[in-house]
Specification:
This protein starts with 15 loop residues before the first helix and ends in a 7-residue tail after the last strand. Strands 1-2-4-5-6-3 form a 6-stranded antiparallel beta sheet. With 158 residues, the protein is α+β, with helices and mostly antiparallel strands. It is built from 3 helices and 6 strands. The longest helix has 16 residues. The protein has one domain: Roll (Thiol Ester Dehydrase, Chain A).
Amino acid sequence: MTEPTQSPPPATPATPEEVARLSAAAMWAEDHASRSLGMEIVACGPGTATVSMLVREDMVNGWGLCHGGLVASVADSAFALACNSHGMVTLAAGFDVTFVEPARRGDLLVARAREVVVRGRGGLYDVDVVRDRDGAVLAVFRGRSRMTSQTNPALERD
């Protein structure tokens, strides 16, 4: 009779890039809001993330411009991925957004988030939302994060 084989426990991620990738994949799998808006992860790494969103017909306001809340949403999604890239569940403590130029139906928006500073459990992140076709900055977002004591479930060992 042969002994049943046991699978080895999952390996701890070896690099900060792998932690960022696994954290993003776990978050995105459950982020129904971002995915329902057609957002896609373009890139992610330690303290960084890039997310894109095509402005659809159902995203424009009465003036034919992309609703500002949706421009903020693509920035917020990039911010969320960037601040959760270190493997700890991290939440938004707040954000400010400045709209520089309107987005229109058919524009591909690209939100590029970068970590400015993390001290203790708090962090600051800047996100530029640009129009893909010409690189014009449409909005500038500053997010404030608060890290919890919970490890991203995708990184926990059984």
